[in-house]
Design a protein that fits this description.
Shape: globular
Number of domains: 2
Largest sheet: 8 strands, mixed
Strand content: 25-35%
Low-confidence stretches: 1-88, 91-96
Distance between the termini: 80 Å
Structural class: mainly beta
Number of helices: 3
Order of helices and strands: HEEHEEEEEEEEEEEEEEEEHEEEEEEE
Mean pLDDT: 78
Bound molecules: zinc ion
Helix content: under 10%
Strand order of the largest sheet: 19-20-18-17-21-22-24-23
Length: 402
């Protein structure tokens, strides 16, 4: 027996004991160059070819030392082979057999996908087949009537847009942009004192708050040292901006859609929601410098141009209510009925559809808007009969930044 057991350093013994104590599954985190090692040792100390032998010998040694005890011990060789070591005791003698069998390592499927250069992530559940590295650029996609994939905008822009200010954004490739690699404004600034409530009052729902984020934000004004600074530095600071907007409690669909001002609604975390454009007619999600929650301030306050990744939308079925539009209809996340991740093709020209939803605790067949990954992200026009007009927040939309 003793001849089977090589010399074990005290470090190797400790490593084996640790390995045995680790929960199942933790071994998956130690894939080294596509191969798995059951033992954690300085790899430079041992030549790769000798690892399997040493490993098997170490397991055998551990059994002999009583660390693993009789029964089965499992290890893996450098070539992904699984070693099952069994022990038998008969008449006080212990026989140890090591039998390698081939196994396949199945990598864990990540449940989130990084965006904004790793500053944030989104749930795979809400992505479907969408390729976040090639989203359609919405710059200039607006008009004076409702159309799918476009914003019905009012008042009509007074002059031609100025989409090209000479700034080259490396995450924009022709007619698409790459949200995965877009730069995010750096920082993790906490805020306190945020307040928001959506309160039924007669036939109306009062949306009142102060626009202070309930989550951390980037540093604004954008710091000179921030990699985002060289693209479109935002000189505005985040400040409270009190608002109180009344929308219909039970909105109804109008005979014809109506146009959007700069402000289009409020999210349930109390943040102002703007349409998909910046002040110059550019796709705000693609071209503006935003933080890890896809928000940023103008001179009045913090706002989103899309449904922020910082708004939780758990589950796998139809998305949850995440905000209210200024016509009173609800704004839901990316998933439609049965959990299908929606695109513009699934929605009408205003970016919504009608089916049974949970509305104020009851199941009701009602029109509602959905978020999509593609432009115009939240709303293309108002579908409801009653529409609060921008500037309900006092901002009028993107406006100048200073
Ligand atoms: Zn729906
Ligand atoms: Zn903005």
């Amino acid at each position: 027996m003793a001849s089977l057991v090589p010399e074990l350093s005290s470090e190797m013994v400790r490593n084996i004991a640790r390995q045995d104590a680790r929960p199942a599954g933790s071994r998956q985190s130690r894939v080294i160059s596509g191969r798995m090692y059951a033992m954690r040792r300085p790899s430079s100390l041992i030549a790769p070819r000798s690892r399997p032998l040493l490993l098997a010998a170490a397991v055998v040694g551990a059994v002999a030392l009583g660390l693993l005890g009789p029964g089965a011990a499992i290890g893996k060789t450098a070539r992904g082979k699984r070693i099952t070591t069994t022990t038998k005791r008969r008449n006080g003698a212990t026989t140890v057999k090591a039998r390698p069998t081939t196994t396949t390592t199945i990598p864990a499927v990540p449940v989130t996908v990084p965006i904004l250069g790793g500053a944030a992530s989104v749930r795979r559940q809400g992505l479907g087949a969408v390729d976040l590295t090639r989203l359609p650029l919405g710059t200039n996609k607006y008009g004076s009537s409702a159309a799918p994939g476009s914003v019905y905008r009012c008042p009509a822009p007074s002059g031609p847009p100025t989409p090209n200010d000479g700034v080259v954004l490396p995450w924009i490739n022709g007619s698409t942009f790459d949200l995965v690699h877009k730069v995010a404004v750096a920082g993790s600034v906490p805020w306190s004192g945020g307040a928001f409530a959506a309160t039924p009052q007669g036939a109306m729902r009062v949306l009142a708050g102060n626009d202070l984020p309930p989550h951390t934000t980037g540093v604004f004004p954008v710091a000179v040292s921030d990699p985002a600074y060289k693209y479109r530095p935002n000189p505005s600071a985040i400040a409270a901006n009190g608002f109180s907007v009344s929308v219909p409690l039970n909105p109804s669909v109008a005979a014809a859609p109506s146009c959007l001002g700069g402000e289009i609604g409020v999210t349930l975390n109390g943040i102002e929601l703007f349409n998909a454009f910046d002040a110059d007619g550019r796709d705000a999600v693609a071209e503006e410098t935003q933080d890890h929650c896809e928000g940023h301030p103008n001179v009045f306050g913090y706002h989103y141009h899309s449904i922020s990744n910082c708004l939780a939308d758990p589950g796998s079925g139809h998305s949850q209510l995440l905000g209210y539009a200024f016509d009173g209809f609800g704004i839901f996340g990316h998933r439609g009925e049965g959990g299908k991740v929606l695109t513009n093709a699934d929605l009408d020209e205003c970016h919504g559809h009608t089916h049974a939803i949970t509305w104020d605790g009851k199941t009701t067949v009602l029109y509602h808007y959905h978020a999509t990954w593609e432009f115009p992200y939240v709303i293309g026009c108002f579908r409801g009969t009653s529409t609060v007009r921008s500037p309900a927040f006092g901002t009028g939309g993107e406006g100048p930044r200073r």
